[in-house]
Every structure is written in structure tokens, then in C-alpha cells.
């Protein structure tokens, strides 16, 4: 039986381990935390959003980054001090701009493919993850942004995704709780939401039942090719595997470098708040449909009856887990403005580092070293794409 090590137990690592063990592979899942899904897969925006498949390699992203550099609460915050990692990442980001349309279409196709696997796995393993199939509503506050969204919709349609334009009146029919002035929106009824931490934890438990050896609280210290296999070292202990799959998020860059490979993942920090809807008035005033507000770059998801998750922003500041009050404040203000009846006394803030590659596409498949595979760099779409990329890499490993 083929022996494979999966490095990292976030959403990509756990889905990869599951896809492999279902193929009869002997899997060891290695994670530095005591449990699965304790970093970027802990408290994200909750959206399973093929409608958010547009890659960022567009001149609008560059203009916004430059425009917002002086704002500490900016939706996209680019810290000006340079590092070689940041400079090399942005050079590759700019180089990928001609592939904007092609990569957006490819991402939409992956996102649609992922749904089938994720929903089937949740049903097969009886995982309750607060899944809500109410669609996602993108909202726009001015004509220019709404018209630009029409172009994005045409690209998404080429990838197989249909979303429809809605007037302000139709927007409120979709989500009656929404307050504010909007020019228009786009509604994708096939999108959905769910709690990434609940799903990943549940699937990790399923992996154990199926025979995956989970080594939690253990950090990989070295990787090396040896006699046609891959040696994985954890402190003084080491084991040989027929293959390894690197699903280590922002740590993937260092692991790849130890094997002589360049995988230019950058840690793009995002923030979220979880609002506890403890009273009936707040539950009634909170949205049931998931939203994406283009102006603020914030998303919201209703998780069960008593939680509202709001997430977003992008901060280029290296490996930094600090939860800053000036970055959390816009999320709170958005709730207070768009859903004024929601009580925000009890709010849990969080920050996570999205592992983002310059072309905004995940790296999925074999590396340069034989026996080494990658499933990493999903950026802001790890929750949306993971089930598809796990199936892709598992098929490659099993067939090798």
C-alpha cells in the first residue's frame, strides 16, 4: 500500500487526506497545532462562493492599493516598507495580469466542481457545518462598480456560473434586512455558506475513522529525498514516505525552498468578527442571505441561527497575526450601518493569513522533486476550492 504524508491539517490538508484514504492510500496527516483547522481555516467569511472567483490581477486592484495606502482602515492595505518576498510577489502578480480573464474562468470552473465533492462528503460523513443554501448577493453602491461587475459576470458565465443582475428593490426582496443606498446587485442562487472550522473538524474525525494516522502537535523540521522516497523529519524522529503532499498554507513556501523549489506563497492577512445573535431582535435583524459589499470588500454569512460572521480586508504585512482594533472597527461599523437592529455587544474578532500565490491560482500537483506534490496557495478561496483541488491531487498521487 502506498504511504503518503499530508503536511498541514487546514481545509486543504484534511480534504486531501480524505480524498487519498478513500482511494485506499495509507495516509499520515501531520499538523503543528493540537487540532485540525486552527489557523486560516478557523473563522473565515464562510462563503462557498464561485461568484467570488475573479482573480485580483487587475489594474483596479493596483489603483485601489495605491489610493488606500494612507488609510489604516483601508479594505486593501499595502504596507510600504519593502522586503524581498513582497517585491518578488508583486513582480509576479503584475506579470500575471495578462492572464486575468483566463484565470478567472479557470477558478470559476474549479469552484463549481468543488461543490459536488464537498456536499457529498458532508452527507456521507454526517457533518453538520451550518450549511445554508440561500445564495450570495453582491451589492454595489455606484454605477461604475455595478457596470464593471457585469464584465466579471460574463467571465464567470464562461466558467459555467450564472448570476443575475438585481435592482435595489429586488435586492431587498432577496434580503429584506439589508439597509442602505445601493445602485444594484448580482445574485447567485447556486452559491452557499457554511462554517469552515466545523466542516474541517468533522472531516478530520472521518479521516481517523477511515484509518488516517493523525499526528497533531508535531511540526515538520526537515524534508529530503532519499532512495526514491521522501523523508519527513519531526524533531529527532523521521519517517520515509512514498510521497508527500504539501498543504501547509503560508508555511508551504519554506517547505518548498527546503526541497529546492520556488513556491511564492505570500501571507495576506484577513480579519473577521463573529457576532453572537443572543436576542430575538438581533436574530430577526440579521441577514439570512450571504452578502459581499464591493465598496468595503466585506462579506457576511449567517452561521446557524445565532451567529453572524463578517470578514474581509487584505493586509500585506508579512507573517503577522496581530488583531488590530483599527482593522476590526470597519467590520463592526458595517454591521451597525447595514443591519442596525443587530446587537454588537458580544463580538469575537479574529485574524488569519491567507496563503496567496501571485497569479491567484492554487498550486496543485507534482513539484520538481519526484514524490513531492502540492495543494496550496488558494488565497481567499480555500474554502470554496479545496474539495476540487483535493480530488485533483489525490488522483495524481494515486496514479503515480
Automatic annotation (TrEMBL):
GO cellular component: cytoplasm
Gene3D superfamilies per UniProt: D-Amino Acid Oxidase, subunit A, domain 2, FAD/NAD(P)-binding domain
Coiled-coil spans in chain: none
Domain of life: Bacteria
Pfam family, one: DAO
InterPro entries the UniProt entry points to: FAD-dep_OxRdtase, FAD/NAD-bd_sf
Keyword Oxidoreductase applies: yes
Recorded GO MF terms: oxidoreductase activity
Domain annotation FAD dependent oxidoreductase: ranges: 3-395
Keywords: Oxidoreductase
Protein's recorded name: D-amino-acid dehydrogenase
Native species: Janthinobacterium lividum
Amino acid at each position: 500500500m502506498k504511504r503518503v504524508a499530508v503536511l498541514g491539517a487546514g481545509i486543504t490538508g484534511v480534504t486531501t487526506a480524505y480524498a487519498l484514504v478513500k482511494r485506499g492510500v495509507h495516509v499520515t496527516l501531520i499538523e503543528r497545532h493540537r487540532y485540525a483547522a486552527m489557523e486560516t481555516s478557523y473563522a473565515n467569511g464562510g462563503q462557498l462562493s464561485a461568484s467570488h472567483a475573479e482573480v485580483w490581477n487587475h489594474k483596479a486592484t493596483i489603483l485601489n492599493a495605491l489610493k488606500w495606502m494612507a488609510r489604516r482602515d483601508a479594505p486593501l492595505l499595502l504596507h510600504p516598507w519593502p522586503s524581498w518576498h513582497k517585491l518578488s510577489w508583486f513582480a509576479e502578480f503584475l506579470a500575471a495580469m495578462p492572464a486575468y480573464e483566463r484565470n478567472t474562468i479557470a477558478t470559476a470552473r474549479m469552484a463549481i466542481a468543488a461543490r459536488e465533492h464537498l456536499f457529498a462528503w458532508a452527507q456521507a460523513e454526517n457533518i453538520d457545518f451550518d450549511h445554508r443554501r440561500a445564495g450570495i448577493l453582491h451589492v454595489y453602491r455606484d454605477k461604475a462598480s455595478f457596470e464593471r461587475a457585469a464584465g466579471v459576470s460574463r467571465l464567470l458565465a464562461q466558467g459555467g456560473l450564472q448570476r443575475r443582475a438585481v435592482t435595489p428593490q429586488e435586492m431587498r426582496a432577496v434580503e429584506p434586512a439589508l439597509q442602505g443606498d445601493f445602485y444594484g446587485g448580482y445574485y447567485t442562487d447556486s452559491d452557499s455558506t457554511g462554517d469552515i472550522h466545523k466542516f474541517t473538524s468533522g472531516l478530520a474525525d472521518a479521516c481517523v475513522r477511515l484509518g488516517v494516522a493523525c499526528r497533531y502537535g508535531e511540526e515538520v523540521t526537515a524534508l529530503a529525498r532519499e532512495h526514491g522516497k521522501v523523508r519527513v523529519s519531526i524533531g529527532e524522529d523521521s519517517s520515509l514516505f512514498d510521497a508527500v503532499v504539501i498543504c501547509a498554507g503560508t508555511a508551504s513556501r519554506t517547505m518548498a525552498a527546503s526541497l529546492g523549489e520556488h513556491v511564492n506563497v505570500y501571507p495576506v492577512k484577513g480579519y473577521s468578527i463573529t457576532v453572537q445573535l443572543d436576542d430575538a431582535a438581533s436574530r430577526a435583524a440579521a441577514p439570512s442571505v450571504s452578502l459581499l459589499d464591493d465598496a468595503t470588500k466585506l462579506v457576511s454569512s449567517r452561521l446557524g441561527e445565532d451567529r453572524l460572521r463578517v470578514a474581509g480586508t487584505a493586509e500585506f504585512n508579512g507573517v503577522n497575526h496581530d488583531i488590530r482594533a483599527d482593522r476590526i472597527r470597519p467590520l463592526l461599523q458595517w454591521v451597525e450601518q447595514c443591519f442596525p437592529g443587530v446587537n454588537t455587544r458580544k463580538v469575537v474578532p479574529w485574524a488569519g493569513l491567507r496563503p496567496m500565490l501571485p497569479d491567484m491560482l492554487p498550486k496543485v500537483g507534482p513539484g520538481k522533486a519526484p514524490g513531492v506534490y502540492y495543494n496550496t496557495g488558494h488565497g481567499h478561496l480555500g474554502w470554496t476550492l479545496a474539495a476540487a483541488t483535493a480530488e485533483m491531487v489525490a488522483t495524481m498521487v494515486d496514479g503515480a
